[in-house]
Design brief:
heterodimer, A: 430 residues, alpha/beta, 9-stranded mixed sheet, two-stranded antiparallel sheet, 14 helices, 15 strands, 15% strand, B: 490 residues
């Protein structure tokens, strides 16, 4: 029995358990382990939309004029130091595998966002699938009621990458938050999970009943696989509406303390929701934190963003660990590129794909280290350059998927998950 | 024994003056013979309502408006089906729809098909002979981003390998891609065939953004480094002459009646577009057909198409006039000659059908596809594109979007929906007429008696509550739009 099977059959019991205040179910994965099977792997991406400043987060340059006003603080790992505005993340430094030597070749938001999500630049003849879709296919269970790929607060044109040639069963289900105000109750829900408020319950009932009759009529008259598939997808969608996605969105089942720990921001509550989705068998979740495009007033903006990021990311790691899920869940922190080490006259930093940082944690990643080096001024990678393909190959390897594995486009052309020649970062997964 | 008799009929020399009606008669006599030989039952002719919806969806990519549907269904004129086909072939929506189909066929995975599609649209509007279209593409030069045949090269990816693969598949119905790296496992295609075809395109990508011509006829394989000479897939070696581009030599070999794949590919794909499955076997593997299967009908049909001067209107009209096209569909059929399947509307057809049924708000560029909601809807629908006309690929996100998304929600809200308000508020319409109009808008047909009774019960559930009655029409319309009949075509 793996986590996924369990959560599918027993979600009702799980909700009951939560009603008795046992919201945390640390016994779930342990149960799976006891059954002697390898628990399913999962992947969670924290997407920093806009291009986060590496110099003010993971790769500080104290004492250099490029460094800016932020100070470094220590982590429990000797020599590993990060920004003073990420104190909670510093405390879990043993989990963090920081890559300081990302180097890519695209500095435009939309194109770079696609590059980091698919490993490919747009414009080619192949409609490449997003990382989440590839992961959904490798790690997900197609029979599950919940889609394998969920994206939380995707950002319009930059965010919503689909399944490409892999097809709609691997397409993302979007969750949007209504409120951006960190003080308001984060109100996350699946897009279109509920009918419009103006439709009364009795009307909904009429609609569903009539639809079922029309489906029955059509099947009787014309039959066919397509009619059956249409009915099946509506049944699944309806079941998700009825169970409210197995209660994943009932964040108020969590204790106030837990919700506070994640941070009462859309991002923080999104991380909490991500954990609840993973518990219910979703294989890939992406949570977006936007606002990193800090061409002006970089330091004020990054400080504010850090205060949102720090509790969300750190609590996610400790919570997953407490539940025994971190060993099987890869957490990826990334944006589409970094920002110039040089500070511009508006106290901002501009787009910089040459030398920037990403972070991996969980799923066997050897944490407590920083890979690569960008020298004294951060202007270039001076040690251990990591390209997009190398990075994505490491991500796949960490969840036990061979990055050379091939999918076929519908015209039969084989496309590997990651372009050939990519080198896995052995220090992190070896 | 019977099948032997049929085969002995042999090839009839194609008549260049054959009319579409004669083509239809020929199709029916050939298919009738095959059907009898296989012992299958004949299927009855489909009703006017089914014919109407098919013809609109397959020739224009959209469903008819309420008044178009009503006019056709009420007409008692004998030649109305033929006249409808004529008028749809002349409709500018035909060239838009067929340009979309062929741009996708020729550059299947491209996400930069726009300019190529625009050029194709103009050619189809003029009914340019198909061999000329192919030759224009194969010999195109100039700006690859302009609305011109050169745009094919950027849509496919302007490299010899991608072009070889696309030309083999889109123009000849042959999947050659595997032979790029290794000899094809199931067919006789070898690396020399793949690279031999690629060699004709050795110089097209020399200048970024342009399609250029050069006189190179040799190419170095990107894998393995071996050199290959330009070579046709079949027949004698190409004869190059000074001053003539290698691609012009290729075009003369590809787009002629002598190439047994070229006309057959068009005929088979048009048949699939119109009838829901290829005339023979799978559409991308004409090279794997058994001889008997080819001889039965495809080669003769291809010869007729070539004799017509590769006239696409003639081909489509002939097929649409045939009994084969006009028969009722069957639930699940074997691909090939057996009959017509229930087919799934393409994402473009679903969008156009919603647009027609709901009178969607126009966006920039006049199509509702250019509103943010329209773009979102189209993106979601597009993810559910099946690989054949009978696949249904929609998943949970697509279902939720149609059930609860903003477009259908507004379309089924009395205050916001043009269609619904026109029906519900019309003082001169009786209850049954209101239901008829909703059915015409969503299904292009009138409700059957049992359906009408069922719906009347919903409308009359609260006879004294006028608001509830109005809401009942909204509920009915919602169910129609979400039902299989809206997105599947029998």
């Amino acid at each position: 029995m793996n986590v996924r099977e369990f959560s599918r059959r027993d979600f009702v019991r799980m909700s009951l358990a939560s009603a008795f205040g046992v919201a945390a179910c640390p016994w779930l994965p342990r149960l799976a382990a006891a059954a002697g099977k390898k628990p399913a792997k999962a992947c969670l991406v924290l997407w920093m939309s806009g291009g986060p400043s590496q110099t003010d987060t993971w790769d500080l340059k104290p004492g250099h004029k490029n460094g800016g006003p932020f100070k470094e603080i220590a982590t429990p790992v000797l020599g590993l130091r990060i920004s003073e505005h990420l104190p909670k993340l510093a405390a879990v430094g043993k989990e963090l595998g920081i890559i300081r030597s990302m180097t890519t070749k695209e500095g435009e938001h939309a194109r770079a966002t696609q590059l980091l999500h698919t490993g490919q630049l747009p414009g080619g003849p192949v409609d490449y699938p997003a990382l989440g879709s590839m992961m959904a296919k490798e790690l997900g269970d197609s029979e599950h009621d919940l889609p394998s790929y969920v994206t939380i607060s995707p950002q319009g044109a930059f965010g919503n990458f689909g399944a490409g040639f892999l097809g709609p069963q691997y397409a993302p289900l979007s969750v949007s938050g209504i409120s951006d105000n960190p003080n308001a109750r984060a109100n996350l829900t699946i897009d279109f999970l509920k009918p419009d408020r103006s439709v009364a319950a009795s009307d909904q009932e009429t609609r569903r009943k009539l639809l079922a009759e029309l489906q029955g009529d059509f099947a009787k008259r014309h039959g066919g696989d397509a009619a059956a598939a249409q009915a099946a997808s509506y049944r699944k969608a309806q079941r998700m509406v009825d169970t409210e996605a197995h209660g994943a969105f009932r964040l108020d089942e969590e204790s106030a303390k837990m919700r506070d720990a994640y941070g009462r921001s859309r991002f923080g509550q999104g991380c909490l929701l991500a954990r609840r989705l993973l518990e219910r068998g979703v294989s890939f979740v992406e949570v977006t934190l936007e606002g990193w495009d800090t061409h002006q007033n970089n330091f004020e903006a990054v400080k504010n963003l850090s205060q949102t990021l720090d509790p969300g990311f750190s609590t996610l790691l400790s919570d997953l660990k407490d539940r025994g899920m971190l060993a099987n869940t890869l957490v990826v922190w990334m944006g589409e590129f970094g920002r110039t080490p040089l500070i511009n006259p508006g106290a901002g930093r501009d787009h910089f794909p040459n030398a920037w940082s990403t972070v991996l944690a969980g799923s066997g990643i050897k944490g407590g280290q920083a890979v690569g080096n960008t020298g004294k001024d951060g202007a270039a990678v001076v040690d251990r350059p990591v390209g997009v393909a190398d990075f994505l190959a490491t991500v796949f390897t960490a969840v036990g998927v061979d990055p050379a594995k091939e999918n076929k486009t519908w015209e039969g052309r084989p496309i590997s998950l990651v372009p050939k020649g990519a080198k896995v970062i052995e220090e992190l997964v070896g | 024994m019977l099948s032997l008799v049929i085969l002995s009929v042999g090839l009839v020399p194609a008549n260049p003056n054959e009319s579409p009606a004669e083509l239809a008669a020929w199709i029916d006599s050939r298919l009738e013979a095959v059907r009898r030989a296989k012992g299958h039952q004949a299927r009855p002719e489909a009703g006017d309502d089914v014919f109407l919806r098919r013809a609109y969806l397959e020739l224009t990519g959209a469903i008819p408006s309420v008044s178009e549907a009503r006019d056709f269904l009420e007409s008692t004129s004998a030649g109305k089906r033929e006249r409808l086909i004529h008028s749809l072939l002349d409709d500018k929506r035909f060239s838009e729809h067929y340009a979309r189909l062929w741009a996708r066929t020729m550059a299947p995975a491209g996400n930069t098909r726009g300019p190529f599609e625009v050029w194709l649209r103009g050619e189809l509007r003029k009914n340019t002979p198909f061999d000329q279209i192919a030759k224009a593409i194969l010999t195109a030069k100039g700006n690859a981003a302009s609305a011109s045949p050169a745009a094919f090269y950027s849509a496919v990816g302007n490299s010899p390998e991608r072009l070889a693969e696309a030309v083999a598949r889109g123009f000849m119905g042959i999947r050659l891609g595997c032979a790029q790296c290794h000899n094809h496992p199931f067919t006789s295609w070898k690396r020399e065939h793949f690279w031999g075809l690629a060699a004709f395109f050795a110089s097209t990508g020399a200048v970024p953004g342009q399609v250029s011509d050069g006189f190179a006829t040799r190419i170095t394989a990107t894998n393995g480094g071996r050199e290959y000479d330009a070579k046709f897939l079949e027949g004698p070696s190409p004869q190059f002459s000074e001053g003539r581009s290698p691609r012009a030599v290729l075009a003369d070999w590809v787009a002629t009646p002598k190439n047994r794949y070229f006309a057959a590919n068009v005929v088979n794909r048009v048949w699939q577009d119109l009838c829901g499955s290829g005339l023979v076997s799978t559409i991308d593997d004409l090279d794997t057909l058994e001889d008997e299967e080819r001889q039965q009908i495809l080669d003769e049909f291809a010869a007729k198409f070539a004799a017509s001067g590769f006239d696409l209107h003639w081909l489509i009209e002939g097929i649409c006039l045939s009994k084969a096209y006009q028969q009722t569909s069957a639930a699940n059929i074997e691909p090939g000659l057996a009959g017509r399947p229930v087919r799934t509307l393409s994402p473009d057809q679903v969008f156009a059908a919603l647009d027609q049924a709901l009178s969607l708000k126009k966006g920039r560029g006049l199509s509702p596809k250019f509103t943010p909601e329209g773009q979102n809807l189209m993106a979601r629908l597009d993810e559910a594109r099946g690989s054949t006309p009978t696949d249904f690929k929609g998943g949970i996100p697509q279902a939720l979007l149609l059930m609860n998304g903003p477009i259908v929600t507004r379309a089924t809200t009395l205050e916001d929906s043009l269609t619904l308000r026109a029906v519900v508020e019309a003082p001169f319409l009786k209850e049954t007429e209101k239901l008829d109009t909703l059915y015409l808008a969503a299904y292009s047909r009138l409700p059957r008696a049992d359906e009408r009774d069922r719906l009347l019960k919903i409308v009359r559930v609260k006879p004294d509550d006028r608001e509830a009655q109005r809401q009942a029409y909204a509920n009915i319309f919602w169910a129609l739009l979400n039902s299989p009949e809206f997105i599947l075509c029998p």
